[in-house]
Amino acid sequence: MTSGRQGSLHPGLQEIECRVQGLCKRFGDYQVLSDVSFSLFTGEIFGLIGPNGAGKSTLLECMTGLLPVDAGTISRQGRELALADRRRYLWYQPDDALPFARQRVRAILSFFRRMHGRDEGDVTELVTDLKLAQVLAKPLHTLSKGYRRRVLLALALLSRQPLLLLDEPFDGFDLRQSLAVMELLRRWKKERTMLLSIHQLSEAEKICDRFLLLDQGRMPAIGTLAELAGQAGLAGGATLEEVFLAFT
């Protein structure tokens, strides 16, 4: 088992969008992240997977600067990103965020559209694809978990930042809804890069180009599903669940 492997370049993914090097984070005596290093390629959907408590959300918060790190850097095009640069470059959608909770959905979407210079057609498309028409007049905090997730996803896609960090984007969706959201993400990524923290392995396997496995803050493996299966000593055709169990 080799820690910190980068994985081979996925077909069609040529340019490194972002590089995380030597990221370490400690809470008191507990080492949450230990020397986490990986690269993200422009235009890929990258899956962050691991058991509960592995450090997935902490890693995202450290990347954005919400949490200070004990060591490590985040860089783009060979230049380390300061905190102010990360805000312009990264869009982070936390698992439990609820911005402007008492505002109506229509007003929130309109505000984000104007803030990011999007066309009205972009909002119309997202409202249609995410089936938000029936909740546009409702305050965000009154919506069910599934509808809240749809609104938050719309806000993330309206943003202009080239790197999206989405924490549990499929939580609260049934299978059909998850598949529809996957198709939406594929259509909207364009030249963007997406890092998805996902605990549903079946969903991760369907949408992600590569995977980073975190376990107790360390990196047992990184790569495509085929590469992970090879690292785990599994036969070709192994599922992500089988790979996950082999490493954890």
Provide an overview of this structure.
- The chain has 248 residues and is an alpha/beta fold.
- The chain has one domain: P-loop containing nucleotide triphosphate hydrolases (Rossmann fold, 3-Layer(aba) Sandwich), CATH 3.40.50.300.
- Helices cover 35% and strands 25% of the residues.
- The chain contains 9 helices and 10 strands.
- It has helices at 56-64, 83-89, 105-115, 120-129, 145-158, 175-189, 201-207, 225-231, 240-247, and strands at residues 16-27, 30-41, 45-49, 71-76, 79-80, 90-93, 163-167, 193-197, 210-215, 218-223.
- It has a 6-stranded mixed sheet with strand order 6-7-8-3-9-10, sandwiched between helices. A 4-stranded antiparallel sheet has the order 2-1-4-5, covered by helices on one side.
- It is globular.
- Residues 1-9 have low confidence and may be disordered.
Give the strand line-up of the largest sheet.
6-7-8-3-9-10
Low-confidence stretches: 1-9
Mean pLDDT, to the nearest integer, reads 90
CATH topology: Rossmann fold
Continuous helix count: 9
String of helices and strands:
EEEHEEHEHHHEHEHEEHH
* Main pleated sheet: 6 strands, mixed
Approximate shape: globular
> What portion of residues is helical?
25-40%
CATH superfamily: P-loop containing nucleotide triphosphate hydrolases
The CATH class, by name, is: Alpha Beta
